[in-house]
Protein backbone atom coordinates (compact mmCIF):
# COMPACT_ATOMS: atom_id res chain seq x y z
CA UNK A 1 0.00 0.00 0.00
CA UNK A 2 1.36 3.45 -0.88
CA UNK A 3 2.09 5.80 1.99
CA UNK A 4 -0.12 8.80 1.18
CA UNK A 5 1.97 11.06 3.39
CA UNK A 6 4.75 10.65 0.81
CA UNK A 7 4.88 12.73 -2.37
CA UNK A 8 3.57 11.19 -5.57
CA UNK A 9 6.08 10.24 -8.24
CA UNK A 10 5.61 9.62 -11.96
CA UNK A 11 7.88 7.40 -14.04
CA UNK A 12 7.75 7.58 -17.84
CA UNK A 13 9.16 4.32 -19.15
CA UNK A 14 8.61 0.76 -18.04
CA UNK A 15 11.57 -0.87 -19.73
CA UNK A 16 14.00 -2.91 -17.67
CA UNK A 17 15.38 0.15 -15.90
CA UNK A 18 12.12 2.11 -15.64
CA UNK A 19 10.43 -0.94 -14.11
CA UNK A 20 13.24 -1.30 -11.57
CA UNK A 21 12.81 2.38 -10.63
CA UNK A 22 9.04 1.94 -10.21
CA UNK A 23 9.52 -1.17 -8.06
CA UNK A 24 12.00 0.66 -5.84
CA UNK A 25 9.54 3.54 -5.38
CA UNK A 26 6.67 1.18 -4.58
CA UNK A 27 8.81 -0.73 -2.09
CA UNK A 28 9.62 2.57 -0.37
CA UNK A 29 5.92 3.45 -0.20
CA UNK A 30 5.76 6.25 -2.77
CA UNK A 31 2.45 6.57 -4.64
CA UNK A 32 3.72 5.90 -8.16
CA UNK A 33 2.19 6.56 -11.56
CA UNK A 34 3.71 4.87 -14.60
CA UNK A 35 3.32 5.39 -18.34
CA UNK A 36 4.83 3.27 -21.08
CA UNK A 37 4.48 3.46 -24.88
CA UNK A 38 3.57 -0.23 -24.93
CA UNK A 39 0.95 -0.34 -22.16
CA UNK A 40 1.17 -4.14 -21.61
CA UNK A 41 4.74 -3.76 -20.38
CA UNK A 42 3.55 -1.74 -17.38
CA UNK A 43 0.82 -4.20 -16.35
CA UNK A 44 3.00 -6.18 -13.88
CA UNK A 45 3.80 -2.90 -12.13
CA UNK A 46 0.08 -2.14 -11.73
CA UNK A 47 -0.32 -5.55 -10.11
CA UNK A 48 2.40 -4.49 -7.67
CA UNK A 49 0.65 -1.23 -6.74
CA UNK A 50 1.49 1.35 -9.40
CA UNK A 51 -1.17 3.45 -11.14
CA UNK A 52 -0.99 3.31 -14.93
CA UNK A 53 -1.66 6.46 -16.94
CA UNK A 54 -3.06 6.13 -20.42
CA UNK A 55 -1.48 9.32 -21.79
CA UNK A 56 1.81 11.09 -21.15
CA UNK A 57 -0.01 14.25 -20.09
CA UNK A 58 -2.10 12.30 -17.57
CA UNK A 59 1.08 10.79 -16.13
CA UNK A 60 2.86 14.14 -15.95
CA UNK A 61 -0.11 15.77 -14.21
CA UNK A 62 -0.27 13.03 -11.57
CA UNK A 63 2.91 14.10 -9.75
CA UNK A 64 5.05 17.19 -9.32
CA UNK A 65 8.12 14.95 -9.69
CA UNK A 66 8.35 13.36 -13.14
CA UNK A 67 11.13 10.85 -13.82
CA UNK A 68 11.80 9.86 -17.42
CA UNK A 69 13.83 6.75 -18.28
CA UNK A 70 13.52 5.80 -21.96
CA UNK A 71 15.85 4.32 -24.55
CA UNK A 72 17.48 7.55 -25.76
CA UNK A 73 16.96 11.31 -26.03
CA UNK A 74 15.07 10.98 -29.31
CA UNK A 75 12.42 8.91 -27.55
CA UNK A 76 12.42 11.33 -24.60
CA UNK A 77 11.67 14.39 -26.73
CA UNK A 78 9.11 12.49 -28.82
CA UNK A 79 7.29 11.57 -25.62
CA UNK A 80 7.65 14.86 -23.71
CA UNK A 81 6.74 17.03 -26.70
CA UNK A 82 3.23 15.55 -26.47
CA UNK A 83 2.80 16.96 -22.95
CA UNK A 84 4.46 20.39 -23.03
CA UNK A 85 1.60 22.17 -21.25
CA UNK A 86 1.30 19.52 -18.54
CA UNK A 87 5.05 19.73 -17.91
CA UNK A 88 5.02 23.46 -17.13
CA UNK A 89 6.24 24.03 -13.57
CA UNK A 90 7.02 20.36 -12.89
CA UNK A 91 10.31 18.90 -11.71
CA UNK A 92 11.74 16.75 -14.51
CA UNK A 93 14.43 14.19 -13.65
CA UNK A 94 15.85 12.59 -16.78
CA UNK A 95 17.59 9.27 -16.15
CA UNK A 96 17.98 8.38 -19.82
CA UNK A 97 21.51 7.73 -21.04
CA UNK A 98 22.89 10.48 -23.28
CA UNK A 99 25.64 13.00 -23.82
CA UNK A 100 26.38 16.21 -21.93
CA UNK A 101 25.19 18.24 -24.94
CA UNK A 102 21.91 16.36 -25.15
CA UNK A 103 21.31 16.95 -21.44
CA UNK A 104 21.98 20.69 -21.75
CA UNK A 105 19.65 20.94 -24.72
CA UNK A 106 16.88 19.06 -22.90
CA UNK A 107 17.30 21.26 -19.80
CA UNK A 108 16.17 24.28 -21.82
CA UNK A 109 13.53 22.59 -23.96
CA UNK A 110 10.64 22.61 -21.48
CA UNK A 111 9.37 24.95 -18.77
CA UNK A 112 10.54 22.67 -15.96
CA UNK A 113 12.91 22.55 -12.99
CA UNK A 114 15.43 20.20 -14.65
CA UNK A 115 17.69 17.60 -13.12
CA UNK A 116 19.72 15.19 -15.22
CA UNK A 117 20.91 11.83 -13.95
CA UNK A 118 23.25 9.00 -14.84
CA UNK A 119 22.47 5.61 -13.35
CA UNK A 120 25.60 3.62 -12.44
CA UNK A 121 23.85 0.29 -11.92
CA UNK A 122 22.02 -2.42 -13.81
CA UNK A 123 18.32 -2.96 -12.98
CA UNK A 124 18.80 -5.72 -10.33
CA UNK A 125 21.18 -3.41 -8.45
CA UNK A 126 18.61 -0.59 -8.10
CA UNK A 127 17.84 0.14 -4.42
CA UNK A 128 20.85 -1.91 -3.32
CA UNK A 129 23.93 -0.46 -1.58
CA UNK A 130 25.96 -1.09 -4.76
CA UNK A 131 23.92 1.36 -6.86
CA UNK A 132 24.76 5.01 -7.29
CA UNK A 133 23.33 7.73 -9.49
CA UNK A 134 24.93 11.00 -10.65
CA UNK A 135 22.73 14.10 -10.71
CA UNK A 136 23.36 17.57 -12.08
CA UNK A 137 21.29 20.61 -12.91
CA UNK A 138 18.83 22.37 -10.61
CA UNK A 139 20.25 22.34 -7.08
CA UNK A 140 16.84 23.07 -5.55
CA UNK A 141 15.22 20.20 -7.47
CA UNK A 142 17.94 17.90 -6.16
CA UNK A 143 17.73 19.10 -2.55
CA UNK A 144 13.92 18.94 -2.43
CA UNK A 145 13.67 15.50 -3.98
CA UNK A 146 16.77 13.87 -2.52
CA UNK A 147 14.82 11.48 -0.26
CA UNK A 148 12.99 10.08 -3.30
CA UNK A 149 16.12 9.91 -5.44
CA UNK A 150 18.04 8.09 -2.71
CA UNK A 151 15.54 5.22 -3.02
CA UNK A 152 17.36 4.16 -6.21
CA UNK A 153 20.81 4.13 -4.61
CA UNK A 154 23.35 6.63 -3.35
CA UNK A 155 22.85 9.99 -5.06
CA UNK A 156 25.92 11.99 -6.06
CA UNK A 157 25.27 15.62 -7.08
CA UNK A 158 28.02 16.81 -9.42
CA UNK A 159 27.06 20.40 -10.19
CA UNK A 160 24.58 22.86 -11.60
CA UNK A 161 25.66 22.24 -15.21
CA UNK A 162 22.96 19.82 -16.47
CA UNK A 163 25.58 18.14 -18.64
CA UNK A 164 27.86 17.08 -15.79
CA UNK A 165 25.89 13.98 -14.72
CA UNK A 166 26.14 12.66 -18.29
CA UNK A 167 29.85 13.50 -18.41
CA UNK A 168 30.48 11.54 -15.21
CA UNK A 169 28.27 8.70 -16.44
CA UNK A 170 30.00 8.46 -19.84
CA UNK A 171 33.37 8.81 -18.12
CA UNK A 172 32.71 5.76 -15.96
CA UNK A 173 31.21 3.82 -18.86
CA UNK A 174 34.37 4.63 -20.85
CA UNK A 175 36.46 3.13 -18.07
CA UNK A 176 34.22 0.08 -17.96
CA UNK A 177 34.35 -0.51 -21.69
CA UNK A 178 38.12 0.03 -21.66
CA UNK A 179 38.31 -2.78 -19.12
CA UNK A 180 36.07 -4.98 -21.29
CA UNK A 181 38.17 -4.16 -24.37
CA UNK A 182 41.23 -5.53 -22.62
CA UNK A 183 39.30 -8.44 -21.14
CA UNK A 184 37.80 -9.48 -24.49
CA UNK A 185 41.21 -9.37 -26.17
CA UNK A 186 42.84 -11.31 -23.33
CA UNK A 187 40.15 -14.00 -23.39
CA UNK A 188 40.33 -14.34 -27.18
CA UNK A 189 44.11 -14.66 -26.93
CA UNK A 190 44.29 -17.38 -24.28
CA UNK A 191 41.27 -19.38 -25.46
CA UNK A 192 42.75 -19.44 -28.99
CA UNK A 193 45.53 -21.48 -27.42
CA UNK A 194 43.08 -23.88 -25.76
CA UNK A 195 43.28 -22.38 -22.25
CA UNK A 196 39.75 -22.37 -20.76
CA UNK A 197 38.38 -18.87 -20.15
CA UNK A 198 37.12 -19.95 -16.73
CA UNK A 199 40.65 -20.98 -15.72
CA UNK A 200 42.14 -17.68 -16.86
CA UNK A 201 39.37 -15.39 -15.55
CA UNK A 202 40.47 -15.36 -11.86
CA UNK A 203 43.97 -14.31 -12.93
CA UNK A 204 42.53 -11.59 -15.16
CA UNK A 205 40.39 -10.21 -12.34
CA UNK A 206 43.32 -10.33 -9.89
CA UNK A 207 45.73 -8.46 -12.16
CA UNK A 208 43.26 -5.85 -13.44
CA UNK A 209 42.07 -5.16 -9.86
CA UNK A 210 45.65 -4.62 -8.68
CA UNK A 211 46.24 -2.14 -11.51
CA UNK A 212 43.30 0.10 -10.54
CA UNK A 213 45.51 1.67 -7.86
CA UNK A 214 47.55 3.15 -10.69
CA UNK A 215 44.64 5.43 -11.63
CA UNK A 216 45.30 7.64 -8.59
CA UNK A 217 48.88 8.44 -9.64
CA UNK A 218 47.76 8.99 -13.20
CA UNK A 219 45.10 11.43 -11.97
CA UNK A 220 47.65 13.40 -9.95
CA UNK A 221 49.97 13.60 -12.94
CA UNK A 222 47.15 14.76 -15.22
CA UNK A 223 45.95 17.47 -12.81
CA UNK A 224 49.54 18.75 -12.42
CA UNK A 225 50.33 18.20 -16.10
CA UNK A 226 53.56 16.60 -14.89
CA UNK A 227 53.95 13.06 -16.16
CA UNK A 228 57.38 12.61 -14.58
CA UNK A 229 56.01 12.28 -11.02
CA UNK A 230 56.90 8.94 -9.37
CA UNK A 231 57.48 7.10 -12.65
CA UNK A 232 58.10 3.39 -12.16
CA UNK A 233 57.18 2.17 -15.65
CA UNK A 234 58.27 4.74 -18.21
CA UNK A 235 56.35 5.00 -21.46
CA UNK A 236 59.40 4.18 -23.63
CA UNK A 237 59.60 0.80 -21.90
CA UNK A 238 55.82 0.35 -22.08
CA UNK A 239 55.73 1.30 -25.77
CA UNK A 240 58.46 -1.26 -26.58
CA UNK A 241 56.47 -3.93 -24.70
CA UNK A 242 53.13 -2.93 -26.22
CA UNK A 243 54.37 -3.98 -29.67
CA UNK A 244 54.41 -7.53 -28.32
CA UNK A 245 50.64 -7.42 -27.71
CA UNK A 246 50.10 -7.09 -31.46
CA UNK A 247 52.80 -9.64 -32.32
CA UNK A 248 51.35 -12.15 -29.83
CA UNK A 249 47.86 -11.68 -31.30
CA UNK A 250 49.24 -12.25 -34.80
CA UNK A 251 51.05 -15.40 -33.67
CA UNK A 252 47.74 -16.72 -32.33
CA UNK A 253 45.84 -15.62 -35.42
CA UNK A 254 43.50 -13.25 -33.53
CA UNK A 255 42.67 -9.69 -34.47
CA UNK A 256 44.56 -6.99 -32.51
CA UNK A 257 41.90 -4.40 -33.45
CA UNK A 258 40.60 -3.75 -29.95
CA UNK A 259 44.03 -2.95 -28.51
CA UNK A 260 45.74 -1.50 -31.58
CA UNK A 261 44.81 2.21 -31.19
CA UNK A 262 46.88 2.79 -28.04
CA UNK A 263 50.17 1.67 -29.63
CA UNK A 264 50.66 4.64 -32.01
CA UNK A 265 49.74 7.11 -29.26
CA UNK A 266 52.39 5.69 -26.94
CA UNK A 267 54.96 5.73 -29.74
CA UNK A 268 54.02 9.37 -30.49
CA UNK A 269 54.72 10.40 -26.87
CA UNK A 270 58.11 8.69 -27.03
CA UNK A 271 58.90 10.34 -30.38
CA UNK A 272 57.92 13.72 -28.88
CA UNK A 273 60.60 13.33 -26.19
CA UNK A 274 58.44 12.05 -23.30
CA UNK A 275 59.87 8.54 -23.14
CA UNK A 276 61.04 8.98 -19.54
CA UNK A 277 57.52 9.98 -18.45
CA UNK A 278 54.43 7.97 -17.59
CA UNK A 279 51.56 6.55 -19.66
CA UNK A 280 49.18 9.27 -18.40
CA UNK A 281 50.74 11.78 -20.82
CA UNK A 282 48.73 10.13 -23.60
CA UNK A 283 45.78 12.29 -22.45
CA UNK A 284 47.66 15.31 -23.83
CA UNK A 285 47.44 13.77 -27.30
CA UNK A 286 43.76 12.87 -26.83
CA UNK A 287 42.91 16.42 -25.73
CA UNK A 288 44.26 17.74 -29.01
CA UNK A 289 41.39 15.92 -30.70
CA UNK A 290 41.86 15.86 -34.45
CA UNK A 291 44.69 18.41 -34.28
CA UNK A 292 47.34 15.73 -33.54
N1 LIG B 1 19.39 -1.68 -18.31
C1 LIG B 1 20.56 -1.23 -17.86
O1 LIG B 1 21.47 -2.00 -17.52
C2 LIG B 1 20.80 0.27 -17.72
C3 LIG B 1 21.80 0.73 -16.85
C4 LIG B 1 21.99 2.11 -16.71
C5 LIG B 1 21.26 2.99 -17.49
N2 LIG B 1 20.34 2.51 -18.37
C6 LIG B 1 19.60 3.46 -19.19
O2 LIG B 1 18.22 3.45 -18.87
C7 LIG B 1 17.48 3.80 -20.06
C8 LIG B 1 16.38 2.74 -20.25
O3 LIG B 1 17.02 1.48 -20.39
P1 LIG B 1 16.21 0.12 -20.23
O4 LIG B 1 17.17 -0.89 -19.75
O5 LIG B 1 14.95 0.36 -19.50
O6 LIG B 1 15.89 -0.17 -21.79
P2 LIG B 1 14.70 -1.07 -22.39
O7 LIG B 1 14.38 -2.19 -21.47
O8 LIG B 1 15.11 -1.38 -23.78
O9 LIG B 1 13.45 -0.09 -22.39
C9 LIG B 1 13.41 1.01 -23.29
C10 LIG B 1 12.27 1.90 -22.89
O10 LIG B 1 12.24 3.01 -23.80
C11 LIG B 1 10.93 3.02 -24.41
N3 LIG B 1 11.04 3.56 -25.76
C12 LIG B 1 11.95 3.25 -26.71
N4 LIG B 1 11.76 3.99 -27.82
C13 LIG B 1 10.67 4.78 -27.56
C14 LIG B 1 9.97 5.75 -28.31
N5 LIG B 1 10.37 6.10 -29.54
N6 LIG B 1 8.91 6.35 -27.74
C15 LIG B 1 8.52 6.01 -26.48
N7 LIG B 1 9.14 5.10 -25.72
C16 LIG B 1 10.21 4.49 -26.25
C17 LIG B 1 10.46 1.60 -24.38
O11 LIG B 1 9.07 1.53 -24.55
P3 LIG B 1 8.38 0.22 -25.13
O12 LIG B 1 8.23 -0.73 -23.95
O13 LIG B 1 7.11 0.69 -25.68
O14 LIG B 1 9.32 -0.34 -26.19
C18 LIG B 1 10.90 1.23 -22.96
O15 LIG B 1 10.06 1.80 -21.98
C19 LIG B 1 18.48 3.84 -21.23
O16 LIG B 1 18.82 5.17 -21.54
C20 LIG B 1 19.67 3.09 -20.68
O17 LIG B 1 20.90 3.48 -21.27
C21 LIG B 1 20.07 1.16 -18.48
Automatic annotation (TrEMBL):
Mention one GO molecular function.
oxidoreductase activity
Spell out the InterPro entries in the cross-references. Answer: 6PGD_dom2, 6PGDH_NADP-bd, HIBADH-related, HIBADH-related_NP60_sf, NAD(P)-bd_dom_sf, RedAm-like_C
The superkingdom of the source organism is: Bacteria
Please state every residue range assigned to the domain named 6-phosphogluconate dehydrogenase NADP-binding: 9-158
Is Repeat among this UniProt entry's keywords?
no
Print the keywords alphabetically. Oxidoreductase
| Keyword flag Cell membrane | no
Q: Which Pfam families match?
A: NAD_binding_2, RedAm-like_C
**NADPH-dependent reductive aminase-like C-terminal domain spans which residues?**
161-288
Family the UniProt entry places it in = Belongs to the HIBADH-related family.
Report the protein name in the record.
3-hydroxyisobutyrate dehydrogenase
Q: Which species is listed as the source?
A: Kibdelosporangium aridum
Amino acid sequence: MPDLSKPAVTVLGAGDMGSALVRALLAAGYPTTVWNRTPERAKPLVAEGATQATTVAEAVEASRLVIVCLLDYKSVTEVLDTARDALAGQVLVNLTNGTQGQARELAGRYDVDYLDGGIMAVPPMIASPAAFVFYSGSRSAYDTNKPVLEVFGESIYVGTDPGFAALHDIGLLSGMYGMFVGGLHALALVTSAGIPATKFAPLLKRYVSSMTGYVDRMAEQIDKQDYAIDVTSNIAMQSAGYVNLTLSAEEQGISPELLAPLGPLMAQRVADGHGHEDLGGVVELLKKGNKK
